[in-house]
From TrEMBL:
Keywords, alphabetical: Acyltransferase, Cell membrane, Lipid biosynthesis, Lipid metabolism, Membrane, Phospholipid biosynthesis, Phospholipid metabolism, Transferase, Transmembrane, Transmembrane helix
Recorded GO MF terms: acyl-phosphate glycerol-3-phosphate acyltransferase activity
Pathway: Lipid metabolism; phospholipid metabolism
SMART domains named in the record: G3P_acyltransf
EC number: 2.3.1.275
Location in or out of the cell: Cell membrane
Gene Ontology cellular-component annotations: plasma membrane
Protein name: Glycerol-3-phosphate acyltransferase
Record's subunit section: Probably interacts with PlsX.
Length: 204
């Protein structure tokens, strides 16, 4: 029982780490919570800090999810890694380091999936990249990627715990992107300088 509690606490603390905020504040002397979208995650780090620090934030946010998902392996526990990973996702979303606020947990969720099922992770990642290449919108790629993960977990993998977690996370991701959805509907969503949609609307 103690080991189970310890795993969840460690997972939450791992998820609570905020590399985007720390990198911006201590290296670039910018508080990314006050610039761009105000998010502490990868997309805003790319936008405010640049592609190199943005990539670092992406890898670190994913890595903390993966590390949390591997805790049952380290503790020789039979508890499902997805359940432990949920604590890291909550930690990223409600970080103790920044007043229990945080990001949308897309990268951290992907990191947990990498620990749980690497093949499935690369399938979802492939869908994410294809949609991103077409839409030039991280929000659209994230929501469709999570929707794909939910459909696959229910109808292909037949994994009840994976399916329940996927449904819950997809609903959560859509909720966290509710403002993005409004901007998408009205054609006002921010795009990244990459992909078919971006180049189509930025022709000379």
């Amino acid at each position: 029982m103690f080991e189970t509690i310890l795993m969840f606490v460690l997972a939450y603390l791992l998820g609570s780490l905020v590399p985007g905020y720390w990198l911006g504040k201590y290296v670039y002397h910018k508080d990314i919570r006050n610039e761009g979208s105000g998010n502490i995650g990868t997309t805003n780090a790319f936008r405010i800090l640049g592609p190199v620090p943005g990539s670092i934030v992406l890898l670190l946010d994913m890595f903390k999810g993966t590390l949390a998902g591997l805790l049952p392996l380290f503790f020789h526990s039979s508890i499902n890694p997805m359940l432990v990973g949920l604590a890291a996702i909550l930690g990223h979303t409600f970080s103790v380091w920044i007043g229990f606020k945080g990001g949308k947990a897309v990268a951290t969720s992907a990191g947990v999936l990498l620990a749980y099922n690497p093949i499935f992770f690369f399938m979802v990642w492939g869908v994410f990249l294809v949609i991103l290449s077409l839409s030039s919108m991280v929000s659209v790629a994230s929501m469709i990627g999570f929707s794909f993960a939910t459909i696959m977990s229910i109808f292909y993998y037949h994994d009840p715990i994976l399916a329940i977690v996927a449904v819950a996370l997809t609903a959560f991701v859509f909720y966290r992107h509710r403002n993005n959805l409004s901007r998408i509907i009205h054609g006002q969503e921010s795009t990244i300088p990459f992909g078919w949609y971006y180049y189509r609307h930025h022709k000379d």
